[in-house]
Structure formats: C-alpha cells, structure tokens
Specification:
The chain has 182 residues and is mainly α. Helix content is 74%, strand content 0%. The protein has two domains: 1-80, RNA polymerase sigma factor, region 2, helix turn helix motif (Rna Polymerase Sigma Factor, Chain: A), CATH 1.10.1740.10; 95-182, Arc Repressor Mutant, subunit A, CATH 1.10.10.10. The chain is built from nine helices and no strands. The termini are far apart.
Length: 182
C-alpha cells in the first residue's frame, strides 16, 4: 500500500483513540493500564499495517488487537479481575457531570459491569457502547455470533438485576431510616 493509504490509516486510527481508550478501560479497569493497552495496540497496528484490509472496519481490527493483547497479558500476569477500577466521574461527559443522578447511575453501572466476567464485559462494551454489530463483535473477539449473543444476554441480565437490586436495597434502607419496614 502507498503513502496515501498509510496516512489515511494513521489519521483514522488517531480519530479512534477515545473509543479505544474507553474499550481499554472496560477491559483493564484502570486508565493507566488502558493507556498502555491502547499504546501497545497502536504500535502493533502500525507494525502490521500491511495486514489491514483497506475498506474494512479499522475499529474492529483494532479492538481485535487490543483484546488479543489483553488476553495475553491476563495469561502472563494472572491478573485478578476487579482491582483498581476506573473512577466513574473521570468517564462522565462534562455536560452530564453536573447532574448528580447521572453520576450515581454511572457509578452503579460501573460497579456492576466491573463484576461481570471479562468475556461478558468485552461483548457488552463492543455491542452496547461502541455500536458494533453482533457479527463485528464476534470477529473482533474471534468467537461465534451465538456466543456473542449469549454473553450479551447474560451481561444485560446481570446489569439489569444489579440495578434493580441496588434500587431495592436503597428503598429498604430508606424505609428503615424512616422507621418503616421493608
């Protein structure tokens, strides 16, 4: 491929950095590790630029690289899930940050998602946050579409149950404070 294709590739990759960082945060749980993961993925992508198929989705290709690097990192370091979570407030859009309810909800969702198995977190973020189709997520994670669907269903159910459980717990706590019973 020529210089023009490589320049377009680099430009598109730079535009994807915020999304890659968000995906990295979902996988790693910390901004520091996410930044390292994004950097490693970008380095690998630049080294293997010749393997990318022009016209295909660069984001899916980069997600695949990131997921592969992270899985290798987990295997090599035996990283335990759930340590060093990202501060939810650092991920909130400035316009939403002033709304207490949105911050509280984001915090609840973040804690629930953090407890999901890594496989479910990755699928949930790719499909729900990044907007990939089931087929694209399956390709990015190198799993069958049916596996994407089942992992996504389990992840959505866990998040829904977690939110309802948190709401029920808050209602019980409020009732106890006011002298009622729950």
């Amino acid at each position: 491929m020529g210089e023009a294709e490589e320049a377009a590739f680099r430009s598109e990759m730079v535009a994807l950095l915020p999304r890659l960082r968000r995906f990295g945060c979902s996988l790693t749980g910390t901004l520091e590790l996410a930044d390292e993961l994004v950097q490693a993925a970008c380095e690998r992508a630049l080294q293997r630029f010749h393997q990318w198929v022009p016209g295909s989705r660069l984001d899916s290709w980069l997600y695949t690289i990131m997921h592969s690097i992270w899985c290798n990192e987990i295997r090599s370091r035996r990283v335990r899930q759930g340590s060093g979570r990202v501060d939810p407030e650092s991920l909130v859009d400035a316009g939403v940050e002033s709304q207490l309810g949105a911050r509280l909800m984001l915090s609840k969702v973040d804690r629930i998602v953090a407890r999901l198995p890594e496989e479910q977190r990755a699928v949930l973020l790719l499909v729900c946050a990044e907007g990939l189709s089931y087929k694209e997520a399956a390709a990015a994670l190198d799993i069958p579409i049916g596996t994407v669907m089942s992992r996504l269903a389990r992840a959505r159910l866990a998040v829904t149950e977690g939110l309802h459980g948190a709401a029920a717990g808050a209602a019980r706590g409020a009732a106890q404070l006011s002298g009622g019973s729950a």
